[in-house]
Amino acid sequence: MTSGSDALRDILVAGLHNTHALEMEALQIMNRQVERLQQYPELEQALRQHIAETEQQRQRLEEAMAEYGQSPSTIKEAIFGLMGNVAAVAHSPAKDEILKNMFANHAFENYEIAAYKSLIVMAEAAGFTKISGIQQSLREEEAMAVKMRDMVEPITRKYIGLEQKAEQASH
């Protein structure tokens, strides 16, 4: 039987593993999307910046895991990585791929925000003292969610304009 502190530690470690795997999924999604954003440089730039932040977030999570003698779960990494690749290519055949990806990116950022908020509660309950890195990651996810939200309308307008130009060129 585990003590209360062991149970809290186990909850935190599971949360760290899950959030780390979630960041792997995010990287797969973003890396696949930036390959096809030539006409949307503002979105490409935002994703490339967030890819760099996400790499730092993964590092922070790995450092937190190391405090407990843990390392990332290769099984979770593989599953979440596969899910990220599937999600990234799911919209590619669609004519309005850019819009579907924008919606998915906005939703995914909010999913990550919820995961980090939950992780912070777990860390506080377990007495984890190096919580500032997790809080920094939360702030980065919140900032990216705002960027994605704020890009929905201008990207949609740009998409419409490009589609209209393509239609006019074909006539």
Task: Tell me what the structure shows.
It contains five helices and no strands. It has 171 residues and is mostly helical. It has a single domain (4-170), classed as Ferritin, core subunit, four-helix bundle (Ferritin). The longest helix is centred in the last third of the chain and has 39 residues, at 132-170. The protein is elongated and about 70 Å long.
Topology:
Layout: H1 4-34, H2 41-67, H3 74-90, H4 97-126, H5 132-170
Per DSSP, the total helix count is: 5
Q: CATH topology, anyone?
A: Ferritin
Largest sheet: none
What share of the residues does DSSP label as strand, in percent?
A: under 5%
Stretches with pLDDT under 50, minimum 5 residues: none
Q: Kindly state the mean pLDDT as a whole number?
A: 87
Global morphology? elongated
What's the CATH H-level homologous superfamily?
Ferritin, core subunit, four-helix bundle
CATH architecture level-2 label: Up-down Bundle
N- and C-termini, Cα separation? 74 Å
| Helical content class | over 70%
Number of strands: 0
CATH class: Mainly Alpha
Number of domains: 1
Structural class call reads: mainly alpha
Q: Tell me the radius of gyration.
A: 19 Å
